[in-house]
Give the backbone structure.
Amino acid sequence: MKFARYALLLTLLLTPLVAQADIISFNALDPGANAAARSAWLAAIGIFSPENLVDFESGFVNGQDVDDIGGLFPEGLVIRDNSAANEAVVRSGAGVIAGSNPVGTFAVTHNELAFLILDFTLNPVDYFGFLDIDHTGTTGTVYFTDGGSAAIGFETTGASGNSAEFFGVFRNDRAKILRVELDASGDGRWGVDNIEYGQAEAVPDPSVLILLGVSLTSLPLLRLRRRQ
């Protein structure tokens, strides 16, 4: 009987479902909600901390243009400005982001024209998150490795001081994330800081385990390992 239960569980885990759940996004409505939104994002992914963090605090200088330069960021991330300016500039200083501050010393800034792109083509990811700074609303599109896409968006931030707000996405059942295009609006300069991204370890759906009367701790050998 126990063997039959585990066999059924393996079948459920390894058989693709017809209906797929869409991406999940997490958006802090003000800076005071950043920690809670980020914690909920991590919990949904099923990780304690992201694989990669780009906070611009080491290896960068004020005024450095990082647009479309390979090899700067972990696992092949490329930050690209798709506007005619071709600039994604690391800046430091109080109020340097149109009145708002970087998180820490440095943040990458952009001109709020279409588009600021986070390109994960070299290593498509399961999740990404960042702190958005000083804009009046941003829309965007997440593109997946299977050719699909999903719209995203987040609301205006404060216009001065420590205005950074957390926004994160988990691909859920969608294909891996290939790139993200962001179209911010505002007074001509906004910022992005603390970019987090990586691969999620696949874990059996808790609802399936509950249905079968099996706990995660009782199935250590069935936990799927992240592809190296």
Observations:
- The chain is about 15% helix and 30% strand.
- The domain at 2-16+24-222 is CATH 2.60.120 (Jelly Rolls).
- Residues 1-18, 203-228 have pLDDT under 50 and may be disordered.
